[in-house]
Write a structure and sequence with these properties.
With about 150 residues, the protein is an all-alpha fold. It contains 6 helices and no strands. The longest helix has 23 residues.
Length: about 150
């Protein structure tokens, strides 16, 4: 079980909130143009600030949110406590980040926008989705053999 996994069991229709949130998130990604292959290429070629502004505002929003959650001891909507556990830095995170960045630059997609890109009709991104699934599967197979 994951560290913060809920102990509560819910009916299937409780998952609808995630579907609605995902649709809303996808619309925001499309409207903000962060699923645009051209915007992503501009970012990696250092030609535009657009994507850096979006990513930077997301980081700042996340920092403020975590600070507020810790300060006011916010609980989940089901009353469970939200806990944060310290993370230990490892050089593998740098290698993983570089690999992720290279994949993002080559394909013009990262995990969040893949589904929004497919939803807008960019069906070629299905290859990227299948590659991400295959990579996750391979990682699951070799995870125990990797240094952690």
């Amino acid at each position: 079980m994951c560290i913060n996994e809920s102990q509560l069991e819910h009916k299937w229709y409780h998952l609808l909130k995630y579907l609605i949130a995902g649709i809303f998130f996808g619309i925001i990604l499309v409207k903000a143009e962060v699923i645009s292959w051209f915007r992503i290429q501009e970012m990696f070629r250092l030609q535009s600030f657009h994507m850096y502004g979006v990513i930077g505002s997301a980081v700042i929003t996340g920092m403020i949110s975590v600070w507020l959650i810790k300060k006011f001891k916010v609980k989940t909507i089901y009353g469970e406590p939200v806990t944060f556990h310290p993370k230990k830095f490892d050089k593998g995170q740098v290698y993983g980040g570089l690999l992720f960045g290279f994949g993002w630059a080559l394909t013009g997609a990262c995990p969040g926008p893949i589904f929004a890109q497919i939803g807008t009709g960019a069906t070629v991104v299905i290859v990227t989705l299948l590659s991400a699934i295959a990579g996750t599967w391979v990682y699951g197979l070799i995870r125990e053999k990797l240094p952690h």
